[in-house]
Design goal:
alpha/beta; 6-stranded mixed β-sheet; 17 helices; 48% helix; elongated
Length: 425
């Protein structure tokens, strides 16, 4: 037995509504199950329950065993003082409020049908699926419900990304330009180097970048030097020598401390090498001032124009120091521009709108729908289920669905999973 099933049974009233009794024999009529709470505190707020003809309004707490009340130390938490009904599977101990009054307990063990239990258990039987629990029934859900849930998942994904952005805001005293810089570094670092790049960015006060605007050599030396990519004692190129000289001056002038870790090259395509990504980012910042205004505050940023800059001439024939390569302009690709929109620009817009108290989720949905869908294993596996994924809004929604619900077996907290159980039972 899992607690999420009891939440589902209570919320969707999967019990005989006319014969409910508490474990002490009081009749129970559920007028309202309340609002499901996914945060700390009681599981359902503002429920209305009639006990022996007396209507009570308050909160409902749900546990597998009654004794979980004490195991979780709810008796010490004032947030649970207004619990009017304790809903459990197994009533193994009486539960009392802090004032000594007993909390009525409803045991669902005798009221849940065998059919519901079997359907629920089969959902988690690994013999029935290869990818997700409900893959055989996934397309049985009506389009209206699924589309509404996907829209909610997209916003939920933005809310999760906002947690990191808000942490950066707090540590930077609400310097949005600094936060944009760190978020760009995170995306430019890709999955391999994102953490190293962010830590690199935290060692550079953004006022230094403002001062080095229109000084491409200095900015490039700053980024590569802080990444410890200029630490080699052997001066392998003329450009390397120039960068190292400039960086030594900047390091002394601004008393810079380098991060401990260096970026990885292993398992990366040459176009994703940290040297190239940092050279591209330095070119962007040396060319554009007030980048936050250009990308986030403006309604329709011309992102391709802002980012379509390439690098300094040296990198047109190099991917790293000391080894020449066939000449090619290292401009940011369209697919990488899409990643910047998905992972940096739109999440920052979302946070900035919230900060201003001017939320416009519809505009963000439209922006994301104008971007091509991502191509990864999660998207590919959903497409094998005959799911049509048209754009980045939908691919982001399905990624959120898989990572936060499917993998974690939170089927009954998922609108699709809950709907499928409702259809069957």
């Amino acid at each position: 037995m899992r607690e999420d099933l009891l939440h589902f049974v209570w919320m969707y009233r999967k019990y005989p509504i006319n014969i409910l009794e508490t474990t002490s024999g009081e009749s129970v009529i559920v007028e309202s199950t309340g609002v499901h709470n996914h945060l700390s505190g009681p599981d359902f707020f503002n429920a209305k329950v009639e006990l022996n003809g007396q209507l009570w309004a308050g909160n409902v707490e749900i546990h597998i065993k009654s004794s979980d009340w004490y195991a979780h130390k709810h008796q010490e938490d004032k947030n649970y003082d207004n619990v009017i009904l304790h809903v459990v599977w197994d009533d193994d101990v009486s539960v009392f409020r802090k004032d000594g009054t007993q909390i009525p307990t409803l045991s669902l063990k005798q009221y849940i049908s065998l059919e519901l239990l079997e359907t629920y258990q089969s959902l988690f039987d690994s013999r029935n699926y290869k990818f997700i629990n409900c893959e055989k029934e996934f397309n049985e859900v009506e389009d209206f419900l699924r589309n509404n849930w996907l829209d909610r998942l997209f916003i939920e994904r933005l809310e999760e990304k906002s947690v990191f952005i808000n942490q950066l805001l707090e540590s930077s005293n609400n310097d949005w330009e600094q936060v944009l810089f760190l978020m760009l570094l995170k995306t430019f670092g890709s999955n391999i180097n994102k953490d190293v790049f962010v830590e690199l960015g935290k060692t550079i006060d953004f006022s230094i970048i403002r001062k080095l605007h229109e000084k491409p050599l200095e900015l490039e030396s700053l980024f590569l030097g802080q990444a410890r990519l200029l630490d080699d004692e052997q001066e392998v190129d003329v450009h390397y020598k120039s960068l190292k000289r400039e960086y030594a001056f900047l390091k002394h002038k601004y008393q810079l401390n380098q991060p401990y870790k260096t970026p990885e090259f292993f398992r990366l395509r040459p176009s994703n090498f940290p040297t190239i990504r940092l050279a591209q980012l330095s070119a962007i910042y040396s060319t554009n001032n007030n980048l936050f205004h250009l990308l986030i505050e403006k309604d329709q940023p011309n992102i391709s124009k802002i980012f379509n800059l390439g690098t300094s001439e040296f990198w047109e024939t190099h991917y790293n120091f000391g080894k020449t390569s066939k000449k090619s302009v290292k401009k940011i690709s369209n697919s990488f521009l899409d990643l910047l929109m998905i992972n940096t620009i739109i999440p920052l817009k979302f946070c900035y709108q919230q900060y201003q108290g001017n939320e416009n989720n519809d505009s963000l949905l439209k922006m994301m729908m104008s971007i091509k869908k991502e191509e990864n294993s999660i998207v590919a596996n959903f497409r094998k289920l005959d799911v049509s994924i048209k754009d980045a809004k939908e691919s982001q929604s399905y990624i959120q669905l898989y990572n936060e619900y499917c993998v974690k077996d939170k089927c009954l907290e998922c609108a699709i999973g809950a709907s499928l159980i409702n259809i069957k039972v």
